[in-house]
Amino acid sequence: MRLRELLRSVTTARTADFFSFLGLARKLNLDMADFEQRYRALSRQFHPDYFYNATPAERRASLEKSSYLNDAYRTLRNPISRVEYLLKLEGMAPQGPEQASKQVPAGLLEEVFALNEELDEVREQRASGAPADAWKGRLERARQPIEAKRAEHEAQLQELSARWDTTGDRAVLESLRDRILERNYITNLLAGIERELNS
After folding, report:
1. CA distance linking residue 126 with residue 120, whole number of Å
2. For residue 53, which of 15, 1, 129 has the smallest C-alpha distance?
């Protein structure tokens, strides 16, 4: 590839989103074999090893393009980061983890309240010298409804992703954003239980 073409493609990469860079529609359910094939083809085209005898500008452009390709690959191969990226592209990204963690999603209020009470009691039990089997069993039982909620959310995310792919409806994106916020909250709750189990 000549310098002018490479530099033009680097400029295009800066303005293209990850989907279009890989020649994909903005869909959430990807044909992963096709995705991998596109990635490998572009990787071969832009890999810096093919530009070791090129000018410094060509090598720099190759590195930039290859780096962008790797970012696209890492983001789009994971279904959750793919949803988060699409929300960002569509101007509907959550306002950040700080804001999300401050507001308990309405659908989780009851579970969060019950879990916090259980964690407080487990901490008291542990502080009073109770055997680990006693309080660890309570934590395991407390984890079960949260794990069930996570499984429910994963199913909802899959269903909403399929609906987005067929309708492109903005209301579906709003629901996806809400499910992602709830999913992040659930993940944090489970991490809290895990920390208690391992402390």
Report:
1. 10
2. 1
The sign one gets for the Cα dihedral 145, 81, 163, 185 is positive
Residue at 194: amino acid letter: E
**CA torsion, points 22, 28, 30, 36, in degrees to nearest 10?**
40
Say what the pTM is: 0.79
CATH topology of domain 3-77: Helix Hairpins (1.10.287)
Contacts by residues 41-44 (CB-CB < 8 Å, ≥ 24 positions apart): 42/69, 43/69
Could you tell me the two tokens for 72?
């696209």
What is the pLDDT tens value at each position of the chain, 199 positions in all?
444 554 455 444 556 899 999 999 999 999 999 999 999 999 988 877 777 777 888 878 888 898 999 999 999 999 999 999 999 999 988 765 555 555 667 767 777 788 888 888 888 888 888 888 888 888 888 889 889 989 998 999 999 999 999 999 999 999 999 888 888 888 888 888 888 888 7
Q: For residue 42, which amino acid is it?
A: L
| 41 vs 127: CA distance, rounded Å | 58
Alpha carbon distance 17, 19 (integer Å): 6
Q: How far apart are CA 3 and CA 49, in angstroms?
A: 15
